[in-house]
């Protein structure tokens, strides 16, 4: 081993050790919480035996919260897609100062604490009794919070795709704006829509601060139920609730990682640019849409 490589290897080993320590610091509490939800008695540990009793009790008590969380998340995804995709297209195509101001205003709810956004919604719409006590009140809050993630994801792809040239070609052949939007724009921004939808779905299921302020006893979602379980019941029940929560959210997180999705859409945008450059370098290859990898 040379004198030059020895310090480099030492730094690499030190970095690896620090990474493992950080991962252990973050993962060990989750593992311990999962084990607590599967043991007969938390204070005796695994020696007391393993059981699914607590998971069964959690499901019997909180299955309504599970389905409600999924309903709210799916409704939020649909609404953010209907609003966010056209908005992202317009913002990406526009170079005006007004468009940049609108874009900054869309991101504002992310910068604000969830409690502040919820308080604003309560002060404006809290007087509408039927609306206040329905799940749609929470959906509105989730849409306000997650819409920037859909807009950013789609706008990143719109900005990096050569949509202008494709639309001009389609317009020269007599295609209307509606035909161009559904046959040219949407197929090309599909990676951004998938990125935004997964991000919105995951954020909606896991949102607590805003939901805690907006919920009623009849509209209790998973994160709110998790907090109640830890505060008012046995630790094993709260830990079993954590397992249920992980079983719901982990598939979406794995899907985001597998598809190379990040909420801001930057990775999707880089992928589109790379594919576009490869197509330009290959003679005789043309494409009217960008497919996700």
From TrEMBL:
Q: Could you list the residue ranges forming a coiled coil in this record?
A: none
List all membrane-crossing ranges. Answer: 66-92, 104-128, 134-151, 193-214, 240-261
Predominant cellular place of this UniProt entry's protein: membrane
**Xref: InterPro entries:** MetI-like (IPR000515), MetI-like_sf (IPR035906)
**GO BP term, example:** transmembrane transport
The GO cellular component terms are: plasma membrane
- Determine if Cell inner membrane is one of this entry's keywords: yes
Subcellular localization, per the record?
Cell inner membrane; Cell membrane
The way it spans or sits in the membrane comes to: Multi-pass membrane protein
Q: Which UniProt keywords apply?
A: Cell inner membrane, Cell membrane, Membrane, Transmembrane, Transmembrane helix, Transport
PROSITE patterns hit by this protein:
ABC_TM1 (PS50928)
Stretches assigned to the ABC transmembrane type-1 domain: 66-256
**PANTHER family found in the cross-reference section:** INNER MEMBRANE ABC TRANSPORTER PERMEASE PROTEIN YDCV
Family membership: Belongs to the binding-protein-dependent transport system permease family.
- The name under which this protein is listed is ABC transporter permease
- Organism of derivation: Caballeronia glathei
